[in-house]
Structures are given as C-alpha cells and as structure tokens.
Write a sequence for this structure.
C-alpha cells in the first residue's frame, strides 16, 4: 500500500514546490552534493564529459534487484571505464526508506559500488530533475545538455517487455557516436522517491 501511494505523494510534494523539472534538450540543472565521505561533488565540474545520474534508494526492491543481480551490478563500472562519469543520488528524506549515511555506506559495501553516491536529503536536486522513481536515470552530454530521462531499461525486475533494451546504454552509445539520442525519454519504473514533506 505504501509503495502504491508513494508516487501520489511525490506528485503532491512537487506540486507544492515551485520547481520546474528539467526537460530533455535543455541544460541539466547543476548541483553540488556531498558524497558518503563528505566530499562535495559538482555536476558542472564534469562539463566536457558524458555523465549518468542515477536516482537511488537501497531499500527499494527495484534497486536491490538492479544492483544485486540485474544490469546495475557492473554497468556503472564498465561505463566509467569508457570515460563516462556516473553519479548516484539518494533523495530519501530523514526518516524515510533508504535515508542515512550508514544505510548507504552499507549498500555501497554490499554491492561494490565504486562511483560517488551523493546525498540529497532536502530533495531539491531530485525535484529539479523531476526524479520520481528509484531507479530513475538521466544522461547529460558533454555540453551539459540533458539528453535522456527515464527508465534504466524495459525490464523491471528482469522481466523485459519484448526484446530487452537498455535505454541508458543506448543513450550513452548515441552520444559517443555524435548522434541524437534515438529514445530521449521513457517512463521510469520503480519505487517512488522518498521525498520529505
């Protein structure tokens, strides 16, 4: 019941906040967040590089599957090895599922996550992107333009709708080849982002 209500709660929280979510084809909202060691990470520091931004909640079953045995088990590492930057953002508010330094440190250790995990406790960054689910994926091109927003793939919990398609990988490949992203938006799936009130 809570999982079903979460998207409704997020929508109402966004409606009360005068923030316009970023649109594909426009500049990606810059942000500065702290990683799990307390170091500040700024999106703008990576201009000139393709950046993947992943919304994350280690208590969400969709995230648990994706990082445990699904495509995110090693996708970030393989992607980073090609020169792409991967930033994982947790917008869970205090008292909500997935919140807290220790919870996220444990997830990083359990899943062997090597890219930065950033804490967005206020939810401001998540709302600026229009992140609604975990995972919700975004790709920013080297010019700083948001070129993809949506689902990781077409296979929630490993169950593909038709032939398996990894939308994020396809977007990265399109950017690398200098092509427009063929599928710039898809509907994200997963648990509602656990924003505060």
């Amino acid at each position: 019941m809570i999982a079903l209500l979460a998207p409704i709660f997020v929508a109402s929280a966004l409606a009360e906040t005068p923030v316009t979510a970023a649109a594909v084809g426009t500049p990606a909202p810059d942000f500065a967040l702290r990683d799990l060691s307390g170091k500040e990470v700024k999106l703008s520091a990576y201009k000139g590089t393709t950046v993947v931004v992943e919304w994350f909640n280690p208590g969400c079953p969709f995230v648990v599957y994706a990082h445990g045995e699904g495509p995110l088990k090693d996708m970030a590492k393989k992607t980073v090895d090609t020169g792409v930057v991967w930033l994982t953002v947790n917008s869970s508010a205090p008292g909500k599922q997935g919140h807290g330094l220790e919870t996220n440190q444990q997830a990083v250790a359990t899943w062997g996550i090597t890219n930065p995990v950033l804490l967005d406790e206020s939810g401001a960054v998540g709302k600026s992107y229009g992140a609604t689910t975990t995972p919700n994926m975004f790709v920013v091109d080297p010019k700083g333009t948001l070129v993809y927003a949506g689902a990781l793939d077409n296979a929630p919990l490993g169950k593909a709708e038709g032939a398996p398609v990894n939308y994020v990988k396809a977007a990265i490949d399109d950017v690398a080849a200098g092509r427009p992203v063929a599928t710039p938006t898809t509907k994200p799936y997963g648990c509602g982002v656990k924003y505060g009130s």
Notes: Residues 93 and 121 are 5 Å apart (CA to CA). Residues 1-19 have pLDDT under 50 and may be disordered.
